Amino acid sequence: MLRLGAYGAAGAILSTAASSSVVGSFGLNLDRNGDPLPTQPLQQAQVLTPSAPAGIDPQLFARAKAALNQHQVYARDTIGIVDFSKPSSEPRFHLVDLASGQVESHRVAHGRGSDPAHSGYLERFSNDFGSYATSNGTFVTGDYYDGKYGLSMKVRGLDWSNNNAEARAIVIHNAWYAEDDMVPLHGMLGRSEGCFAMSRDSQYQVMRKLAGGRMIYADKLA
Q1: Is 92 left (phi over 0), alpha (psi -120 to 50) or beta?
Q2: Rounded distance, CA 196 to CA 95, Å?
Q3: How many C-beta atoms lie closer than 10 Å to residue 16's C-beta?
Q4: What is the distance between the alpha carbons of residues 133 and 116, in angstroms, rounded to a whole number?
Q5: Per residue in 155-164, pLDDT tens?
Q6: Residue whose C-alpha is closest to residue 164's, from 122, 133, 202, 203
Q7: Count of CA atoms in the C-beta half-sphere (13 A) of 193
Q8: What are 123-161's pLDDT values in tens digits?
Q9: pLDDT tens digits along 4-52
Q10: Which region holds residue 169: left if phi is over 0, alpha if psi is between -120 and 50, else beta?
């Protein structure tokens, strides 16, 4: 993972205390049900970054900003941009602060249906049920839930190319095969079934920054 600044990274502890909010050891604000809250309130801040931040393809950044406006996403302080032109060995899930232009980049797995030969490169997208493939397009984040991989976050697809995401159970979760130590061992991450699978540390940072209906734009240019 590439990032500016540092975050604490201990195990997540959920609380069901009656207080309105607590702070977990990942730095997540937790509500009375033990669900993480965004670290910052929803903001419809002016997009001040006129050109692509360093490390992000200008064409992909332009598409993401166009999607933000097309879908009238309210929260536009921080967005996620996923560049599936890059292999899974590289940090390609970018968290972009649209006011400052600062970027944090994380590794993320793609679906096994998108890379049948397990080359580490995404070959195709699919929105079909049973494809086990990654979908491209505009997503917004949804609710937290406790699932197979622990605390995870739902996403909703807004385009024809990914509008089955919620029904396909495409989510943000952590997985052992998406930990960074897979890269020196195998030269790439493992594959998901279409989900945005990450290391535990990356997943919690992504969820913290993008909670509350913030946008993720995922695509491949070449």
Answers
A1: alpha
A2: 14
A3: 10
A4: 9
A5: 999 999 999 9
A6: 133
A7: 9
A8: 999 999 999 999 999 999 999 999 999 999 999 999 999
A9: 333 333 333 232 222 333 334 444 555 555 556 555 555 555 555 667 8
A10: left
